[in-house]
Design goal:
The structure is a homodimer. The first copy, chain A, has about 230 residues and is an all-alpha fold. Chain A has 11 helices and no strands. Chain A is flat. Chains A and B meet through helix 6, helix 7, helix 8, helix 10 and helix 11 of A and helix 5, helix 6, helix 7, helix 9 and helix 10 of B. Chain A binds a DNA duplex (19 and 19 nucleotides) through helix 3.
Chain lengths: ~230, ~230
DNA sequence: ACCTGAACACCGTTCAAGT
DNA sequence: ACCTGAACACCGTTCAAGT
């Protein structure tokens, strides 16, 4: 009866950088990154917006801290993974584990890519990936190329260019629309029709992100292994 | 004496959607996407901010239009490319051509990834990529996987996770800093030292984006060719 | 030490009004 | 048809002032 709803609103426990960042992540997870304003964040913590500036220096600092928290979450998980003598399997498991964390924080890829510098947690993550590649017999030079080839996949995400949930081009696209597009983009239409024929359940919301992520990841890992053998 | 500086300021030629989008691209190219505000854009055109809303519906519409203009620029260039019987070489040239356009518009990758839906120019581009893959002997199913594996590389860009120009971790990082980091991230430091030893000119601003882009691209193209042969 | 009220300089956007 | 002045609801942020 006394406490209204969230435990976060209690004014007993004082604010701290950690509480601010935790609330920020919660807001972004729930309402998207666009909903994260300093005023909204303060409200979530039962405080005035100006109070936040005692614990964080500005909004950029909040975004930096949110990313560090997410990557730290990843580091804890991947550090607990059991070693695997096959570098490909070891790295694959690491990356897919990291991916799970990003799936819980859909705003994180966009924010991460908007940050310029490396923070300690990110540096730690990449160092551990490098360790894996070295143990797998990679030179530093090839490992370096490999990190670039993986790109954001090394951290467990790809920025999907198109939202399959978009109404305009997915889900309930009917035959009439397809026919209309067929003249100008015949291959795209043919591809969608063939795939939706093979799997009638998914008309145009046809991309299984997990499957596609693993396909691309394995393609790169296999390619790197071949490069390593050749070197 | 009469015309102040830019030809864009002349009030003779009336505003239009095209002029608004052109000015928006110019502003973003010059000052970065963060500098693009409706007021700044209006100022560039010698007009009040409210006038813009007669030609575009809102800022989202401006961003959509900017992307469409950039991708149209790409489509014109790649359509003029001479055909190549080797699908890998053909696609490689296409993608590297598209990349040149993105290098001129550094804001475009970020904006593109923030858009949800596909627009006609983007759909056209992907259809032409699909056409190339089909001509190279790909099934629609494998071509679809291939598009996902390429990700934004298919359009000619990768979102670099770290800005090599960042002062904190690049350029003039001295030996003392490296030594300090060596204990916690030994492989990263070893890699940077080895690479900077091989190429002393580039201490920590060591990543040649073009080389790395092509390495990753070729890795994926080769992997897709192998998948195609196996299928 | 920690929080806040009032205020500032900015946003995107609307709408009735001007020409 | 095309542009604008005034205004609204929102931002992030500062700073002197409160407890």
């Amino acid at each position: 009866m006394t406490a209204k709803t969230a435990a976060t609103r209690s004014p007993k426990v004082p604010l701290s950088r950690e509480r601010v960042l935790g609330a920020a992540i919660a807001v972004a997870d729930t309402g998207g990154i666009a909903s994260l304003t300093m005023r909204r964040l303060a409200q979530e913590l039962g405080v005035e917006a100006m109070s936040l500036y005692y614990h964080v220096s500005n909004k950029e600092d909040v975004l930096d801290g949110m990313i560090d928290a997410v990557v730290t979450e990843i580091n804890v998980l991947v550090d607990a993974l059991e070693p695997n003598p096959d570098w490909r399997l070891a790295l694959r498991e690491r990356i897919l584990t990291a991916r799970q964390v990003f799936l819980r924080h859909p705003w994180a890829p966009g924010v991460l890519e908007s940050r310029t510098g490396m923070s300690p947690p990110i540096v730690l993550y990449f160092d551990s990936v490098l360790e894996l590649l070295r143990a797998g017999g990679f030179s530093y030079d090839l490992a370096h190329h490999g990190l670039h080839a993986l790109g954001s996949r090394a951290l467990g995400f790809t920025q999907e260019l198109f939202d399959p949930g978009d109404d305009d081009y997915s889900g309930d696209a009917d035959a009439a629309l397809l026919e209309q597009m067929a003249e100008q983009v015949p291959h795209l239409v043919a591809m969608m029709m063939e795939i939706s024929h093979d799997d009638p359940e998914s008309t145009l919301g046809w991309c299984d992100d997990q499957v596609e992520f693993e396909f691309g990841l394995d393609l790169i890992l296999d390619g790197l292994e071949r490069s390593r053998e050749r070197a």
